[in-house]
Hints:
This protein is an all-beta fold. The protein has no helices and 8 strands. A 3-stranded parallel beta sheet has the order 1-4-7, with no helix packed on it. The protein has a 3-stranded parallel beta sheet with strand order 2-5-8, with no helix packed on it. A two-stranded parallel sheet has the order 3-6. It is globular.
Amino acid sequence: MGTVTISNGDAALGVGGGIYTDTALTMTASSVTGNTASVNGGGIYRNAGSLTLLAGNVSGDAPNNCAATTPLTAPC
Length: 76
């Protein structure tokens, strides 16, 4: 994924208000801000695969900016 802005999203299923991913994802100079989820990963929720953030901004998301399915670790 190239330069994008994802903001003000809301997770209908409780996780991944901005992004929910099941595969490898690389984001460069992108912004994920102001998204919400009722359970986890307000900004980004990584269910599987890898997540690489290069010179990006992930902030202001609730309940947390990034989360992952156990036993995966949070990507940021």
